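Readers outside the structure-tokenisation community will struggle with the description of the input data as it stands. Showing the layout once, in full, would remove most of the difficulty. For illustration, here is how one protein appears when written out as sequence plus structure tokens:
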Amino acid sequence: MWIADQWKDYEVLDTSGGEKLERWGEYTLVRPDPQVIWATARTHPGWKKFDARYSRSNTGGGKWSAHHLPERWQVAYGDLVFNVKPMNFKHTGVFPEQAANWDFIRDQIARAGRPISVLNLFAYTGGATIAAAVAGASVCHVDAAKGMVAWAKENAKSSGLEDRPIRWIVDDCAKFVEREIRRGRRYDAIIMDPPSYGRGPSGEIWKLENDLYPFLELVCGVLSDDPLFFIINSYTTGLAPSVLGYLLDTLVTKKYGGRTECGELGLPVTESGLVLPCGSTGRWLGAEA
């Protein structure tokens, strides 16, 4: 497991009964978490005094209550600055466990000793984008949601990276990659966090179990002749980390050599000492790594 344990502005304070108690800067949130199937005594004082709680509805969705939060605020991970705000479906715009991948990205780019171009697909609010940019890479950030790309730009600006070579693309990821292949554009590193389920701009249905392998085959068409790394992250329930590793071995290691590693991402829980599992990641590292 890769544990994101270097945060100062974020902390999982406690977990119990399907919920996690979190500190986001100076604010405390309670949010549901499907991994927390244990129920322990809620002795941490934050359970009784929090700034906002997201509760699921029996009819689907959910809502925030006891909402004592500003419209937005900022948290920092080292020199990366993120704009946080409570969204529908419990999210805040940042997945803190991804810090383990951000550290990996920065380390690989810094050690490469050459210019690196990065393609970040399903790039959301840009955590991996700004991690790659601050390490000196040129980045192409692609997401189908215009609002998420705008949010990612705000994060880049807050991190002092507005002048870095980042291309901001609002587009369907598969259609964008198809055009990049036709243009002959290539990338040294690829990062992707595909959804479990989604619909394309023309009503196309994306289901990760059916569509991830052919999508990876497509994306391999934009890898450079000497790629540095390839990261696949997934929050799809029941998808083992080893599956992501096998996909990368089948499509990338077989052609380029190098090696693959896979595992869960996790966040330390202060009160119990447990590590909360937070999704699966597969990483391919080039021969120079």
Observations:
- The mean pLDDT is 94.
- The two ends are 20 Å apart (CA to CA).
- The chain has two domains: 2-90, 96-285.
